[in-house]
UniProtKB/TrEMBL annotation:
NADP(+) binds at residues 437, 485-486, 491-495. The keyword Cytoplasm applies. Residues 4-148 form the Flavodoxin-like domain. InterPro entries: CysJ-like_FAD-binding, FAD-bd_FR_type, Flavdoxin-like, Flavodoxin/NO_synth, Flavoprot_Pyr_Nucl_cyt_Rdtase, Flavoprotein-like_sf, FNR_nucleotide-bd, NADPH_Cyt_P450_Rdtase_alpha. GO terms for cellular component: cytosol; nucleus. Its cofactor is FAD; FMN. Belongs to the NADPH-dependent diflavin oxidoreductase NDOR1 family. It catalyses: 2 oxidized [2Fe-2S]-[protein] + NADPH = 2 reduced [2Fe-2S]-[protein] + NADP(+) + H(+). It comes from Caenorhabditis tropicalis. This is NADPH-dependent diflavin oxidoreductase 1.
Amino acid sequence: MTSILILYGSETGTAQDLAESMGRECYLRHITARVYDMDEYELGCITTEKVILFIVSTTGQGEMPPNMRRMWRILLRKSLKPDVLKGVHVAVLGLGDSSYQKYNFAAKKLYRRLFQLGAVTLTIPGLANDQHELGIDGAFIPWKKEVWKEVKKLDIFPEMTLDPDPAIKIRTRYRFFYGEGAERYQDDGYVPLKVISNRRVTSEGHFQDTRLIDFEMPSYPSYKPGDVLMVRPYNPTETLQIALDALGYSDELLDRPTRILNNDPYVKPPPCFLVGTLRKCLERLWDLQQIPKRSFFEMLAYYSRDRAEKERLKELASPEGLDDLLDYANRSRRTTAETLRDFPASAKNLPPDALFEILTFIRPRAFSIASAPSPSHVELLVAKVEYKSRMSDARRGLCSTFLSRLKEGDEVYCKIRPGTFRFPDPEVPVICIGPGTGVAPFRSLFGHGSSKGLLFFGCRGEHSDFYFSDEWKDIEGVEVIPAFSRDTEKKIYVQHKMRERAADIKRLLEAGASVFIAGSAGEMPKAVSEVLTEIQGEEWMKKAEETGGIQFETWS
Ligand SMILES: Cc1cc2nc3c(=O)[nH]c(=O)nc-3n(C[C@H](O)[C@H](O)[C@H](O)COP(=O)(O)OP(=O)(O)OC[C@H]3O[C@@H](n4cnc5c(N)ncnc54)[C@H](O)[C@@H]3O)c2cc1C
Ligand SMILES: Cc1cc2nc3c(=O)[nH]c(=O)nc-3n(C[C@H](O)[C@H](O)[C@H](O)COP(=O)(O)O)c2cc1C
């Protein structure tokens, strides 16, 4: 039987989530679908496929996610004939963030290559943007509408309906199982690290709470400067409590030992340390803190047995209800737990298996390692995200809040992975620009003791958030140039300090120095690039970007 192939390339699970939801949508349209991680797929069969949907995120600085790199290398082979994908219909959805300079590069490159290899494109690539007011849905919804229309026209799937068939009952991807049996869980490389200390590094009166957190690393491979620690956070207790109250499950059900079984052979089971009981899943597996997406309202409406609430949920999930949804959820930064509370009749006593379709899994977060390589410990410099919205309680970032509350002896599931930076040999000088927590990878580099160069650091004030100010003077060969934005009437940022030191920068660049920029993906990387262009010219910038002479590790 002909089926659709859905391939995803994902770093932190969003593309995987969308790929699996497209698989579910196929099922509701009477189409069989296979959903694979791109590098899991047997590429030798690709020429026999009829329709392939690719859903890929961009990571690093315009890079392919790790789980599609093998396939990408093969697709790039010069030996492939230009018509090798003739007759294969493809559509590409990219996930990206326009605050990165190489916006959605992975999807754009993949689309171009598929086209070069003769694939028939069903529609132009959808480019989802984290910065869009509606998030990923802003591009995902119109893209999939177009895809279904074009797939229907192909007439390959005789049973296919253009819209989901309301007569088909949704089959949850997973189900809870309370008996004995073999376990099959994903081993995604995360290990528990124990907290040694968690110290505030901003002054007490300062608005920003930034933490230096030290973890013990028993028998874990060491790391290099520039590496990143991926952290799996849990929901905060107050958010968990709101959800537990809304869902109304008994303690007996919440604490009954359980396991998760797959209903769909193509989806991966979650890591076992996130499961065990329903309560543990609500604490560790599902994101109760994120702003609910449109699919949340769609699925809660599907399971709701309350007429009035069902109607309201459907309204919020409909294309006409877009502004209403933005106002209700996005502009107020309402959490998933608070939304469950707002729909009490629908949330109360939901079948636990339905939560797999209504809620989404918590995404791990990346943090640049802030300590010099060590076989026994690793440090992170974490700025706690906290802000106000029109909701009465403060809004909090999930992972930074989780980390900021850790106590000595607590355990956190983490994994080390390479970051974007490729630092040169120690004899090559470096020019580093790292305002705020962007200084983390440079503390790792210079703490190593061998690299030399300039470090431009930016913060609000010398006595409020000048991280590691007492450490730098002891490091030989490194000059730290701070820019304090609130200590004088005129705001001074790193780019101003760079202009003042243009002659030194030029001298170092001409001696072969490399430039590294880390921190907020907002205005800073652009402002710094402008100064470097003023100093060395556009040609130099272009070449430096291509050859790794200038590298960025920025985040939004
Ligand atoms: C490679 C890499 C390295 C990183 N290194 C570090 C590091 O060393 N230190 C560090 O602290 N972080 C670092 N980060 C960022 C980190 O991964 C998290 O993104 C950050 O801690 C926030 O995550 P969170 O879970 O607390 O917030 P989330 O729950 O993910 O919420 C963040 C979201 O909140 C919203 N938001 C934030 N502030 C406001 C506001 N004022 N108004 C409205 N909305 C707002 C934004 O939409 C933002 O996307 C790094 C990121 C990457 C990719
Ligand atoms: C470390 C990191 C690097 C990123 N780099 C880029 C980038 O260069 N260009 C871009 O458009 N988006 C970039 N993004 C945004 C992601 O592509 C986007 O958040 C996407 O939804 C993540 O999907 P995933 O969870 O499937 O990996 C980056 C995100 C992270 C966490």
